[in-house]
Amino acid sequence: MTKQPSIYPRRRWLRVFERGTAAVERAINRLGTVNERIRPYNPLYHLGTLAIFLLIVLTVTGLYLTIFYRPGVERAYPSVAALSATWLGSLMRTVHRYAADALIVVSVLHALKMFFSDRFWGSRWLAWLSGWLLVVLFWIIGLMGYWLIWDQQAQWLTEYFIELLQGPSAYTFFGGQVASSTFSLFVIVLFLHIFLPILLIIGVIVHLLRLARARYWTPRWLMVAATAVLLVLALWRPLELALPANMNVLVRQTSLDWWYLGFLPLVERLGDGVFWGTAVLILVALLALPWLKPGQHDGPAVVIDANCTGCSACAHECPYLAIEMVERNDDTAYSMLAVVKPDLCTGCGICVGSCPDKAIELDRLHSAVIRQDLQRNLSLTQRAGAAAVVVYTCERHAALGTLPPLENPKPLSEVGQTVGGAIPLLQAKQPPRINIGSWPVSGSWPDGQGQPRPVITCVVPCTGMLHPNWAAETIDAGGAGAIVVSCPAHDCSHREGPNWIANRLRRRRTLRKGNVHFWELAPGSRQQVLSLWAQMVGDETQTAAARQAVTVVGGKTAVPQPSRFTFLRHSVVGLVILFVTFLGAILLMPLTNTSLPDGGQIRLVINHGGAVAAASSELSAEVLAKLPENVDPAQVLGGTRLPVRLRVAIDGEVVIEESYEARGLRQEGSIYGIESRWITPGDHAVQIWLMDDEVEWRLVFDDTVTVAEDGVVRLLYNAEHDIFEQ
Fold first, then answer.
1. pTM score above 0.85
2. Tens digit of pLDDT for each residue in 305-316?
3. pLDDT tens digits for 113-138?
4. Tell me, which fold does domain 600-725 have in CATH?
5. Which of 288, 415, 546, 609 has the most CB atoms around its CB within 10 Å?
6. CA-CA distance, 32 to 572, in Å (whole number)?
7. Contacts with 414 (C-beta within 8 Å, 6 or more apart), sequence order
């Protein structure tokens, strides 16, 4: 028998991490909540939209910087230096840099939050995959921005890629006429740095493609807070320019942004193969995670065709566009029918709560079974002499410890019910959905006097699955009241569950009795739930306090808007969180030493046309007759070129002996080569021999060169004069 993948509560290795993040969020909520009826000022609930806002900041500041930037090895650094000399230019450049670092940090935090809360598999694979590809694109675009400054960081980056790629790239920076030969490269990189963000727009659209009512804009208070934090950090710690790039001087130490350029020292220590092999392996594992570690939910939803009236409520409320309305061709009086797309369903059950006709159910969790068990257990507690309070909540709250534990909970199996038995639409055994604390023995929650009082907990995939009738039936069956504990609206695992259940409950007149409470809490807020429950089972004074503490369903009390001072006082925790996050990003720019050997360097650069291996005399007369006059037949026919061999002696000792092949599929292209040799500072006798005809060595350089400490002596091959020149 194939083992079923774990469902949400049983993926304990993820729940351990999620409990940590939930604890941080609860602490922020306690400080950032004006009152329980106004959502907390918690930036961790808006990491995705905050990343989009940072992209907007980067676009605005980047456009300003582009106006004053001039490409090229001779003009890039002076134009950036001139820009940084003005207060506005320095501010815009610093904000641009800090926003780029914050973007990486916020995006990674957003990905980790999605991972810890199990929102990466199933129908969410597209968002997970596109999100990580967006992070890679952020990094590539940022890398180009660092290179365009043409300072020592850019020099370190350039020298690394020259060593890695070899070929024409080496000659571009080490050959003659560097300014003219690299200008086009600067223009291309600048063009890509400006216009690649268009791909980011497409990527964000794809990232949110499967979401109904996708949110692109972060709350206004968070936009103001993020802008203020960036400005404060930019004024407090304005960027300082590193030294300009100089390919004739070695980079020993420079301030390095590890978010974008941290791979450079790591590659030096680990080697290209180990570092890039590990990086690619990690990226592939992250992209494949939805298929490597899939979970399981209670869906997909199943439509009961005979009950469907085509009202489209389920399709409208589905957060993931998993339901569509189609024309029906049966004998019913209804023209439309709801159809579920199983591959998009997340098993949240929001469609179940939205349906007024009981026409849709989750495949593995039938709502009628839960409701019947609730009625039965409410009757049991009432016959025992006391009415129970029913606490409805979602799997996430239950798994992360929001519900105070019952000392001796009684699951459904102990009250004559079967969990996972032969129940319609129930195909897999699930954890108990309903627990009852029996009266009057231990197992109930104690009230303010320590006396046990009956309580029933009901756990559903998402509180959006709850229909208002559930709470009404709780009251009608003799229940003392109902508490609906939901995730914060901006932190629901299924996006919109809290909004839908809150709207449904408020619309029901039958619930306007003051004993049904709705509360949005961070997972793990056990003390708050227990406190509300204790007030509900207390005397009239405590019950009245409970009505004022949280949203009373059906109540007409207006939500008090906070004053400006109150808003600032409670939003300061969000400012602190942003400040610490952004500061942590920019602090990862320490002075970093390269791991280069001591001394100086002699660098040899070759750009050789190469001798053609095939001679004209070897071609037939018919072929020669067809070629234009004064044309080398071998070149026209793609003749293979002979390799170029190099031998270098320093102070009489041969230190380099290499062979370079022609480029191209048929080895008909030019021949490039670059060789570097570390050497102690001082004067050294250097001799260079070259062979390009496979016959004899020619001495093409014989002179004394002076190598300075941390200096680079560049010897460039001049094909016209057949010599190496300094």
1. yes
2. 989 999 999 999
3. 999 999 999 999 999 999 999 999 99
4. Immunoglobulin-like (2.60.40)
5. 546
6. 8
7. none
